[in-house]
Amino acid sequence: MCEVKREAVSVGSEQRCVERWTLCSKSLSVEILSIGAVITSINTPDRSGHSADIVLGFAELESYLTNPRYFGAVVGRVANRIAKGQFEIDGKVYKLAINNGPNALHGGLRGFDKAVWTCEAVDNGVKLSHSSPDGDEGYPGNLKVSVTYTLNENTLSVLYCAQTDKTTPVNLTNHSYFNLAGQGTPDIYDHEVTISAEAYLPVDDTMIPTGEIKPVENSLFDLCKPVLLGSRLKELPGPGFDHNFCLWFPGQPKQEKKCARVVHPGTGRVLEVSTTQPGVQFYTSNFLDGSFKGKGGASYPKHSAFCLETQNWPNAVNQPQFPDVLLRPGEEYNHTTHFTFSVV
């Protein structure tokens, strides 16, 4: 079942109509905004049948116009970081806004997370579309993008599509922050995490991959079996996880893989993720600091949520040994991610 509500909001000097879509099944409800194609809530039951909202976000629509931590948004054209905010295609250098230390992050100053997308109903869901003109945030080519959310029983599926008239990098993901105990719970230390990846990408001190593809075996990045997050974060150097885990490699065909499973033993809630993308960025909300007022007046401190951002490998446009991130005229960017919710 789908329901849509429309609300007016000021976007710059314009009044724009923002749509709020609600997708419902017997066990789940998912709310989606046309600003940034944001997932603003996911309500799912625990083992006792009590439902709670398990994604971080804002109560006020206006807060999503700035959304400084990308809560629930689709980010692009290129998710994650591009080193020094520049890349080269066919001998031409393209320069982007520097918005994360010395690097470009998540599409720029006004990426797809700040756009008001157009919406249309599809079976069991909603399709959101956006056009990004040539030169938008420094990227070449007129890019047409669509993101389709569908809800079937206990699985939320996300289909990303794009076409371009000039060769351009494209790497789309959803940036939802999850806390399976319920949004507003102060930490995720009691969550058990499994990521089915044999390798990960080490990063430099600006969070750019070094270029090395390193096995997870015998390291703190080995999450192939369930790991209690609190104890692992205490062992891990630095503020927490913000790393790409490699699901498939250059030269291999695109394939859908079950990549992650997170369990919250206290409530019994389980999230399982599968994707056709070659990587998943596991992020433990290291840069939240409690300064944002979230839904229900909640504050969101460090380690109060986790993200599983299915995507291409970070900075792939500058790393020829990484999976190809360039979309060319006549090609179609097409990836799917499934989020399945259950209880144990």
Can you tell me about this structure?
This protein has 344 residues and is mostly beta strands. Helix content is 2%, strand content 40%. The protein is built from one helix and 27 strands. It has one helix at residues 229-235, and strands at 2-11, 14-24, 29-33, 39-45, 51-53, 74-75, 81-82, 86-89, 92-95, 104-105, 118-122, 125-132, 143-152, 155-164, 168-169, 173-174, 192-195, 199-200, 214-215, 227-228, 242-246, 257-263, 269-275, 279-283, 307-311, 326-327, 333-343. The strands form seven sheets. The protein has a nine-stranded antiparallel β-sheet. The chain is globular.
Topology diagram in text:
Layout: E1 2-11, E2 14-24, E3 29-33, E4 39-45, E5 51-53, E6 74-75, E7 81-82, E8 86-89, E9 92-95, E10 104-105, E11 118-122, E12 125-132, E13 143-152, E14 155-164, E15 168-169, E16 173-174, E17 192-195, E18 199-200, E19 214-215, E20 227-228, H1 229-235, E21 242-246, E22 257-263, E23 269-275, E24 279-283, E25 307-311, E26 326-327, E27 333-343
Antiparallel strand pairs: 1-2, 2-3, 3-4, 4-5, 6-16, 7-10, 8-9, 11-12, 12-13, 13-14, 14-27, 15-26, 17-20, 17-22, 18-19, 18-21, 21-24, 22-23, 23-27, 24-25
Number of helices: 1
Into which percentage range does the β-strand content fall?
35-45%
Radius of gyration over all CA atoms, rounded: 19 Å
Low-pLDDT runs of 5+ residues are none
Order of helices and strands: EEEEEEEEEEEEEEEEEEEEHEEEEEEE
Estimated structural class: mainly beta
What is the overall pLDDT average? 95
Main pleated-sheet profile? 9 strands, antiparallel
What spatial form do the alpha-carbon principal axes imply? globular
- Helical fraction equals under 10%
Q: Termini separation (Å)?
A: 26 Å
Instruction: Compute the number of strand runs.
Output: 27
